[in-house]
Amino acid sequence: MRLFVGINIPKKQRTRIHRAVRDLRDEPLPVRWIDPDHFHVTLKFLGEVRKERVPAIEEALAYTARETRAFVTRFRGFGAFPTVRRPRVIWLGVEATPEFRCMKQDLEWALGQAGFEAETRAFHPHVTLGRAEVGEGVGVFRDLDRMLAELSLDDELRVHSLDIMRSHLSRDGAHYSVISSVRLGSP
Questions:
Q1: DSSP letter, residue 135
Q2: Which pTM was predicted?
Q3: How many domains does the chain contain in total?
Q4: Is 148 within 8 Å of 79 (Cβ atoms)?
Q5: Using CA atoms, how far apart are residues 18 and 8, in angstroms rounded to an integer?
Q6: How many CB atoms are closer than 10 A to CB 33?
Q7: Would you say 58 and 49 are in contact if contact means Cβ atoms under 8 Å apart?
Q8: Disulfide engineering: 2 pairs with which of 103, 110, 167, 176, CB 3.0-4.6 Å?
Q9: Which domain holds residue 102?
Q10: 59: CATH
Q11: Model confidence over 92-149: pLDDT tens digits?
């Protein structure tokens, strides 16, 4: 199974995010836009995992949930990875509050104890909005930085649970299902 740990976003907020990027989606950009039903924040990509390892992942989430109370963060700005000139991913940022960073560190530690390799990249929580088609020239995204700067979304994200998500790859992109969920602050 292809798994990751994530935070699912409530339907009303997914709808607001989708509306906020309407003008960008209307641009003739070579981007495959993500269905709003699939908007989430990935905390840790686990990759291909055998079914018998799922209980260890659930225990890591349980540890993280015991160490973390529910908290509020905010959606902050739009951008692209690796750059706006040659993007692969167009995203909506999520503020990495101290509570968010601590939760991520606890999760990394607990999953490390379960045998998963630690993440070495800097933590940049975000919601993936679209994936650029590979091989497009620099000029295609010439005005992307301006377009992203013109977008606006002022909303908070209440983080109260963590989910183990399964990613099903298909021709139309990835589809996700929840394998297991744990509420923050749970004993």
A1: T
A2: 0.92
A3: 1
A4: yes
A5: 15
A6: 16
A7: no
A8: 167
A9: 2-183
A10: 3.90.1140.10
A11: 999 999 999 999 999 999 999 999 998 888 899 999 999 998 765 667 888 999 999 9
